[in-house]
């Protein structure tokens, strides 16, 4: 069982503001969806220079935001530990997601490339680029991300950052978060 972990994630508070082309805006805020993931380590399990896992997930529609639905996917994260405390991450993900504008679903591919390094003890800087491909809309979107992650105590980390969409019309997100491993 040391190779398997159950993860429960939830957005304790979210605020979403949208503005249309006419300048009209809407604001929604509240509790977000709950995501359940099972992580199965295949290689490394936190040891060695290469780590790989499988993470199937299910997102449950508990959100106070408009039209939340069940979504699911499979994530395959990989990590290479490089010399000098550098880490190179790569992830492939296939998702079945709700369409933004319609009451329908679509399949999306996501790939990431992440580089991280400790700045000082317990503080890590993370830079990431990723793209998504929506098979239904035949649309490719690219993003760059930057974050800082601080280890408060063993197994408790705080993070903050930005997800920045590069194409016109792609979303930009700022985030603050906490994760605890028991």
What does this structure look like?
The chain has 182 residues and is mostly beta strands. It has a domain of 100 residues. The chain contains no helices and twelve strands. A hairpin with a 2-residue loop joins strand 8 and strand 9.
Top keywords for this entry?
182 residues, two-stranded antiparallel ribbon, 12 strands
Topology:
Elements: E1 4-10, E2 14-19, E3 25-30, E4 34-43, E5 50-60, E6 71-81, E7 86-98, E8 105-120, E9 123-134, E10 139-153, E11 156-165, E12 172-180
Antiparallel strand pairs: 1-4, 2-3, 4-5, 5-6, 6-7, 7-8, 8-9, 9-10, 10-11, 11-12
Largest sheet: 10 strands, antiparallel
Strands ordered across the widest β-sheet: 1-4-5-6-7-8-9-10-11-12
Estimate what percentage of residues fall within beta strands.
over 45%
CA(first)-CA(last) distance: 14 Å
Chain-averaged pLDDT? 89
Protein name: Putative MetA-pathway of phenol degradation
Pfam families: Phenol_MetA_deg (PF13557)
InterPro entries: FApF
Explain briefly what this protein structure is.
The protein is an all-beta fold and 182 residues long.
């Amino acid at each position: 069982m040391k190779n398997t972990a159950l993860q429960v994630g939830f957005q304790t508070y979210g605020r979403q503001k949208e503005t249309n082309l006419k300048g009209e805006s809407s604001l929604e805020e509240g509790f977000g969806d709950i995501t359940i993931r099972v992580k199965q380590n295949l290689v490394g399990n936190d040891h060695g220079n290469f780590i790989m896992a499988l993470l199937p997930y299910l997102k449950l529609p508990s959100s106070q935001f408009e039209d939340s639905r069940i979504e699911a996917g499979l994530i395959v994260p990989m990590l290479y530990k490089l010399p000098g405390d550098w880490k190179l991450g790569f992830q492939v993900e296939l998702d079945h997601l709700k369409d933004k504008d319609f009451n329908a679903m679509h399949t999306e591919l996501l790939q990431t490339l992440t580089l991280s390094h400790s700045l000082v003890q317990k503080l890590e800087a993370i830079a990431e680029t990723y793209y998504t491909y929506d098979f239904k809309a035949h649309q490719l979107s690219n993003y760059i991300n930057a974050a800082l992650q601080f280890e408060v105590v063993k197994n408790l980390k705080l993070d903050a950052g930005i997800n920045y969409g590069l194409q016109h019309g792609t979303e930009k997100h700022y985030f603050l978060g906490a994760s605890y491993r028991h």
